[in-house]
Amino acid sequence: MKVSPNILGGGYATLVLFLWTSVAMDYQNGIHRTIVCIGDRKLELNKIILRLIFLVLGLMAAFRGMDITNDTAAYYRTYQKIAYSGFAGETRMEIGYVALNVFLTHIFQDTLVGFHVLLFVTSVFSYWALEQWIERHAITYGICAVTFYFLSNQSYMSAIRQSVAVGFILWALMAMEDLNGRKRYIVYALLIGFATLFHKTAVVALIFPFFMKRKYTRNTTWLLMLITLVATLTNIVSSVISILGLGTGYVTTEIGNAVNVGVVSLLYFALLLLRLICDNSSYIMDEGATDIEKPAYGDSFYTYCIALSLAVTIMSLRAAGMSRLNMYLQLVGLPYVSNIMRRIENQKVAFVVKVVFSMAIWCYSVIALIYRPEWQHIWPYHFYWQ
Questions:
Q1: Are the C-beta atoms of 64 and 72 separated by less than 8 Å?
Q2: Contact, 225 vs 272, CB < 8 A?
Q3: Considering Cα of 263, then 134, then 38, then 61, what sign does the dihedral take?
Q4: How much is the pTM?
Q5: How far from 202 is each of 86, 189, 320, 325, CA to CA, in Å?
Q6: What is the C-alpha to C-alpha distance for residues 351 and 267, in angstroms, rounded to an integer?
Q7: What is the Cα–Cα distance from 334 to 114, expressed in whole angstroms?
Q8: Rounded to the nearest 10 degrees, how much is the dihedral formed by the CA atoms of 370, 376, 379, 382?
Q9: pLDDT tens profile 95-132
Q10: Rounded to a whole number, what is the distance in angstroms from the first to the last CA of the chain?
Q11: 209: Cβ contacts below 8 Å, ≥ 6 apart
Q12: Which of 202, 267, 314, 316 is deepest in the core (most CB within 10 A)?
């Protein structure tokens, strides 16, 4: 990626200022519960703030420059190939993604215009699904937005096919909430099937129903630790992934990847440690005892997602392709961050915990941006018409 010398320019500073201002407003609204009237409809201010944040991030993803990532340029070359040869022009990509490309090439003769419409469609779908997931399941939104932006957004934006798969998985999980009986599992399976048409790694979502009703315990932690240790010290997972063809050269063994894995693993570990403190402290509200009711799967489900994210992140050191699975687990588990912090009864302690966690991931992002700008795929950011 060609890196601009103006790495920490006004665009990035403005975006970060907007994000932190929005998060501060969300925090204040969590105290005062401001209601905004839009015509005959009443809407909480924090929902408007969350939707505004994802609108900005979605527009960034939809209109990003062609040289933001190598992936974007590669996807454009794929689009051009499909424009000239149809389905026969691309055999590596999943059929659902190719079909969408074919459809757009028949509508737009200019391949560059058609490709940016493709980016717009995929961005609107995937960012809208993620916003709805957070709005439904997170007790507070600001900390989730911060976590997503500084830990996930750069990879989410560059993973065009996989972000669509994430969107289908989130809609599948929300459909399971809204439906009853056997129908909920049928709809879930169908939506997961659509997700695999865009990225075959979405098949990992079949494990989610298994964790929905299971309680996360200390024994679960020990079991995951043992499995992760064995899988990381051996080539078992790498061999399985190679057989399945999920990508054998996606993760390198370079020192940069090791540092990245180490820092992110520490952040996951800190979140899981916070859950352990919550379960063993008399100053912490019980699960489900918060003052705001949310139609959630429960903290145990989100804890499973975060714990598995930690396991997958560590295994990605040795098992090529594992990091592709991390996106599903990390984004589904995003409500864990706010929900577990909301259980801290002492608001001063809760505030300190949120600030420390937010500043830790922000500082890591800035340091990585300066020291290794190629890691941060969307920085320095610019629109495609520039």
A1: yes
A2: no
A3: positive
A4: 0.84
A5: 25, 11, 17, 8
A6: 17
A7: 33
A8: 160
A9: 999 999 999 999 998 998 899 899 999 999 999 999 99
A10: 16
A11: 176, 185, 188
A12: 202
- State the pLDDT at residue 35: 66
Residue 291: pLDDT band (50, 70, 90) is very low
Structural contact between residues 33 and 139, judged by C-beta atoms closer than 8 angstroms: no
Residues 6+ positions from 210 with CB-CB distance below 8 Å? none
Apex 186 CA angle, 182 and 187, nearest 5: 115
Which pair of structure tokens corresponds to residue 131? Answer: 């916003």
The per-residue b/e assignment along 96-121, b for 16 or more CB within 10 angstroms, e otherwise, is bbbebbbebbeeeeebeebbbebbee
| DSSP helix/strand/coil, 76 | helix
Coil vs helix vs strand at 37: strand
The structure tokens listed for 49 are 């703030």
Question: How many helices (H) and strands (E) in the chain?
Answer: 17, 2
Instruction: Collect all residues with Cβ–Cβ distance below 8 Å to 195 and sequence separation of at least 6.
Output: 164, 165, 166, 167, 168, 169, 172, 202, 205
Residue 203 and residue 192 in contact, taking contact as beta carbons nearer than 8 Å = yes
Amino acid at 105: T
